[in-house]
Every structure is written in C-alpha cells, then in structure tokens.
C-alpha cells in the first residue's frame, strides 16, 4: 500500500512544489487558483507529477494532472491516490532492470514510423530521421576542449546506455556492451575567416543531410569545431529513432556537466529506456489502455481530413533532402508579455500558438475543420528516474480542430485547450496506432496527419534548470547563436515552438517542394502577427476572419493536401497462381500468423502494419533472393501485387 503523506502538511508540501516550479514563494500559492492561472503549463505538469512521486511517494497519472487543477484539487487527488482508492487510470506496470541489459526489445510506435520512413516506406521519407543543431562557444581552450569532450562522451555512454543503442534490420533495438559515439574535431584555429566559414558550411551540410543512423552506428553524432580567437561550434546530430526532444535536453546537460568537470559524478539511474519499453509490453492488457483504444476508435469515423493546403507537387513524386525553415524569435520582453496575457486568460502559451497556427491553416486551406498531428512527451510516470533517462519516449496525438465562425480568439483558444486536454487524457494509445487504424478505414497509404504542431515551451522549467552557460574547457555557451535542421518522415509542414533562454522561437519546418514559397512566407508572417497581437493584448477579443466553409469539398482547383488520388491495389482472386505467389503467401502466413489462401489477400487487412511489412520484405529477400522496395510493397500489399513487384525486380513480366 502507498504510504499516505501527513495530511496536516500535505497542502504545504504541494504548495512548495508549485512554488519551485512557478518561481513563487509557497505563501504566494492560493489553494483555489488553477496551476494554469499561476503561470503553469502542460509541460510543467509532467515535472509536477515527478516531484509528487519523488517527495510524497504518490504516483499520479498524466491524465490526472490537468493544467486547470487547483492546489485543493491536487491535494484531494493525492490523498485518494495515497489511500489506494481504486481509480480508472491506475497502471499496474512496474519498471525494473532487465536481467539481460543487452537483449533485444521492441520499437515504440513512433520509432516504428521513423524506422519504416528510413526504408523509404512512406512518401516524404528520408534515409535518416534526425535533428541537427550547432551553437557557438566562446573562450574555448583549444588544447583541452577535445580531450574533455571525448572523455565526457565516454562517461555519458556508461551513464546513459541508449547512446550505445542499435536498431536491427527487422525493426528491433538493443544496447551494445560498448561502442560510445566517437568525437570528430575540426581544428580551424589557423584558418582565414573565409576558409573557416566554408569549412563550417560543409560540416553543416553533411550533418544536415546525412544524420546518425542507429541501424548502422550510434544514434548520436557529436563534433567540435575550433575557430580562431578562442571561438568554436558544438555540433550535435540526434537520430529521432533513438532520442526525443526531452532526451536531447537531458543529454546536452549531462554531456556538458561531464565536459566541465573531469571529476563530475551524476546521480545513478535505476532504470533505462529498454527497461521502460519492456514494461510497456503489458500495457495493452490493462483496462486503462483498452478504454483509451475504445475511446479513440469510436471517434475515428468522425475525424476530419488534414488541412487542404494547395500543393505545388504530389508528395509521392517528391524526394526531399532537408526541410526548409521560416523562423521568428520573440524578445524576452515580448515573450514575458505573452505569458502574462495567457495566464490572465487561463490559456497555456502552447494553446495560444496552436490556435494561431490553426487560424492560419484555415485561411490558407479555405476551411475551418481539420485534423492536426501533435507531438507529445508522453513519458508515463512509472518510475521516478524516467525524466532523467534518454530514449525515444515521444509519441504523437491526432487532434481534431474546428474553429467556430464568429468566435473571438480567446473563445477559440479556450475550445482548443478543452479539446486538446480531452484527447491528451487518453494518451495510452498513441497517434501512430490511431493513425494506422484511421488509414485502414479510409483505405489510404498516404500520411493521415502530415501537418504537425510541436511545442516544448516551458521544458527548461519542467527539467528543473536551464542548460548550463559555462562548460569548462569548452568555454561559454552562446545558445542564442545556433543553426538547426530537421528531417521528419511523413510531415509536409510542422510548426515548432521552443525557448532559448528568456526568448521564444517559432519555426515553420516544411518540405519546400510541396508549396509555393510566397504562400508559405505569407502564412508564417500572418502567424507571427497573430502572436504579436496576443502579446500586446489586442488580439484576444478580436474575431478572426475565417472561411465560411467548414469542410472543403473535393474539386478541380489543383492538388491539395489530404485530397490526393490513391494508388489502387490490383484486383486479384483465387489461390496463388505460381510458386512465387505461394512463397509470398507463406511468408505472410508466418509473420501474420493467419491462413493466407487467396492471392488477393491484403497484408494490412490481415492484421499487418508497416513494421511487419519491413520484416516481411527482409524475410522475402532471404526466400527469393530479391528485395522488394518497402514503398512498392505498401502501394500494393496483396499476395499477387507483392509477387508482381518481386517478379519485375527479377527481370520477369
């Protein structure tokens, strides 16, 4: 039984936690005012849950702690949890160390999506799904920095075993006994400014377009450029197959802590990413997971299509190399003003950004009802160390948005926050899993959520500290002087909101080849203007101009996102027609564990998914000596269709 906290002190202990998170004094935390009103947000609720577990030994589900909760309500919730009162969201899962830390374990759903994308399985795919970042260093000790950073990487690979993770060709993962990433150092201290700039551009181009790939090496690429006059750049490439956004922050802090002090010792971790994933194997057996699945699946047929943005090209014909960026930075003063305005109206800054983005999309696409994809942290609170562990914990959440005609911005934001909160409360089944079922029902092989909203506003506060500014031999970190590049499969357009110190940044990352540049620039300019109006307070009570149309009907006004033609599978029937089709049918049977007697049997209708498709391709290559491209497999996943593709690869008809 959970040890109940002393009731007399519970409110005081919770007030101390809130004060720590919100930068207040405990006596400035009213018992009847919401966490949101006091300046909290959804990211900080993750940290709040972790602190409650650590200090009070009470486990709260992420769905329990909404931003609208008051201190009184939280105290009541903690007491009920501590008394072991049955609650619908209790997860009977325990994360413990695996007996064999090097044994294989499965990929999580979003990892599976990235993995399939790296096999060119989807349109808008890349050979590596990764995020690249470099930032400036000043006062670098050029003679010591390389050794200090190399030593830090080796120690970090011991502390965080995920740095040694690899992904197998069949789509599973494991942690090697050794194999820390190797540091590459570029010594340009004697170079001319022109030569140094050219060399830096070359490094950026290479790391942006050829990211780390855990199927063949470490999922982390770290490099250091030494420049004249004690300056430098720290380069970081993160595979999305291995690390999520929260992990990149943890990893950077741990790395710099080791680099700053040769004798630094970080608090040990009781569990690691593989332990967490292994514990999740029993999640589908829980009543809570089954309830979330039923909740989502009962709503699938009502979900709208993605925003019908006009396209310059069909995504299936595009082979992007990198994603283009439009970026804006709000000063510390403007960002502080926006946070105050949001708190006054009990709307999170992330929700304000989401609402502004949705308004821009509605005007751009010509309709007010749309489906967006949202990236979520989604670290289930199963162990107090998990917030310090690196790994690919993140998931997605499909988010329907309907902007009411004639409503003020404040009313639209309140509705968006309510919808987002309701959907996030059913986070045990991920957007990838929901999207698979939605695609099956719609009969589409195209991405169902190609427009993404991502916000990590407030993540530094949730982590308990800002990134360090001093790093020993590496000198002073100038985080505001950065360059970054993203490559995310199945995404046409993504807005990312984050903080750099006291400033806020919003970026449109997109596949340039899909859109007219002038339309993108106009949309981003409009987005920035909307947010500026919120910061000065003038935009909240205005009624945004929106299209009359709720859902855009099909038409002949050119290609639009989410309204593109599908490649029809062949119409086949009867038993396998030859030995090749029989072999394909047998491989289907083996991996899907169902009888396959018809040459028209569809892999996905039989229960397959994209990860199993990759495994099927690998198995078929062993059986018939020919590799069927994953994208071609997915375009006609019937027994006869796959056999036809294989036959064409053999040179037959």
UniProtKB/TrEMBL annotation:
InterPro entries: AB_hydrolase_fold, ACP-like_sf, CAT-like_dom_sf, Condensation_dom, PKS_PP-bd, PP-bd_ACP, Ppantetheine_attach_site. SMART domains: PKS_PP (SM00823). Its cofactor is pantetheine 4'-phosphate. Residues 545-578 are annotated as: Disordered. Keywords: Ligase, Phosphopantetheine, Phosphoprotein. This is Condensation protein. It comes from the Bacteria. GO terms for molecular function: catalytic activity; phosphopantetheine binding. The keyword tRNA-binding does not apply. Residues 5-82, 575-650 form the Carrier domain. GO terms for cellular component: cytoplasm. It comes from Planomonospora sphaerica. One of its GO terms (biological process) is lipid biosynthetic process. The lineage of its organism: Bacteria, Bacillati, Actinomycetota, Actinomycetes, Streptosporangiales.
């Amino acid at each position: 039984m959970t040890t109940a906290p002393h009731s007399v002190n519970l409110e005081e202990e919770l007030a101390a936690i809130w004060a720590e998170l919100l930068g207040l004094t405990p006596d400035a935390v009213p018992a009847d005012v919401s966490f949101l009103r006091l300046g909290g947000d959804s990211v900080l609720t993750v940290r709040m849950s972790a602190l409650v577990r650590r200090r009070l030994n009470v486990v709260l589900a992420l769905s329990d702690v909404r931003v609208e909760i008051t201190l009184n309500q939280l105290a009541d919730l903690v007491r009920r949890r501590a008394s072991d009162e049955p609650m619908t969201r209790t997860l009977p899962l325990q994360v413990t160390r695996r007996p064999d830390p090097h044994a294989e374990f499965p990929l999580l759903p979003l990892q599976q999506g990235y993995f399939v994308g790296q096999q060119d399985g989807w349109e808008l795919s890349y050979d590596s799904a990764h995020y690249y970042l470099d930032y400036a260093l000043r006062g670098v000790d050029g003679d010591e920095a390389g050794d200090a950073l190399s030593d830090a990487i080796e120690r970090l690979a011991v502390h965080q075993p995920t740095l040694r993770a690899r992904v197998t060709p069949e789509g599973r993962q494991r942690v090697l006994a050794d194999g820390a990433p190797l540091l590459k150092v570029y010594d340009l201290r004697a170079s001319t400014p022109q030569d140094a700039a050219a060399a830096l551009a070359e490094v950026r181009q290479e790391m942006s377009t050829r990211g780390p790939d855990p199927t063949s090496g470490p999922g982390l690429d770290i490099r250091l450029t030494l420049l004249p006059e004690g300056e430098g750049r720290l380069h970081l490439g993160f595979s999305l197959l291995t690390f999520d956004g929260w992990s990149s922050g943890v990893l950077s802090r741990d790395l710099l802590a080791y680099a700053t002090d040769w004798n630094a010792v970080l608090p040990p971790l009781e569990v690691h990413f593989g332990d967490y994933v292994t514990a999740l194997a029993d999640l589908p057996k829980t009543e809570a997971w089954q309830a979330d699945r039923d909740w989502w699946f009962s709503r699938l047929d009502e979900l709208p299509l993605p925003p019908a943005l006009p396209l310059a090209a069909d995504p299936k014909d595009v082979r992007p190399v990198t994603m283009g960026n439009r970026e804006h930075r709000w000063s510390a003063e403007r960002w502080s003003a926006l946070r105050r305005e949001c708190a006054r109206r009990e709307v999170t800054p992330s929700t304000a950004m989401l609402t502004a983005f949705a308004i821009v999309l509605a005007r751009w696409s010509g309709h007010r009802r749309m489906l967006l994809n949202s990236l979520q942290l989604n670290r289930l609170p199963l162990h107090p160390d998990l917030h310090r562990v690196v790994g690919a914990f993140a998931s997605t959440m499909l988010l329907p948005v309907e902007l009411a005609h004639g409503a003020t911005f404040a009313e639209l934001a309140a509705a968006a926050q309510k919808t987002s909160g309701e959907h996030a409360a059913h986070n045990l089944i991920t957007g990838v899993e929901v999207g698979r079922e939605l695609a099956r029902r719609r009969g589409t092989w195209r991405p169902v959520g190609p427009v993404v909203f991502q916000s990590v506003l407030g993540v530094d506060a949730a982590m308990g500290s800002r990134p360090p500014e001093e790093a020993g031999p590496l000198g002073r970190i100038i985080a505001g002087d950065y360059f970054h590049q993203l490559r995310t499969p199945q995404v046409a357009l993504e807005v990312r909101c984050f903080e750099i110190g006291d400033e806020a940044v919003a970026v449109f990352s997109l596949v340039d080849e899909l859109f007219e540049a002038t339309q993108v620039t106009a949309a981003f300019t409009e987005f920035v203007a909307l947010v500026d109006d919120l910061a000065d307070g003038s935009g909240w009570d205005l009624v945004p101009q929106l299209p009359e149309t709720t859902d855009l009907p099909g038409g002949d006004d050119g290609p639009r996102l989410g309204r593109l033609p599908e490649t029809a599978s062949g119409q086949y029937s009867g038993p396998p027609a030859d030995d090749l089709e029989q072999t394909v049918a047998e491989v289907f049977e083996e991996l899907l564990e169902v009888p396959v007697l018809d040459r028209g049997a569809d892999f996905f209708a039989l229960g397959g998914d994209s990860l199993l498709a990759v495994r099927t391709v690998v198995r078929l290559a062993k059986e018939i000596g020919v590799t069927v491209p994953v994208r071609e497999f997915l375009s006609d996943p019937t027994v006869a269709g796959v056999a036809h593709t294989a036959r064409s690869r053999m040179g037959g008809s």
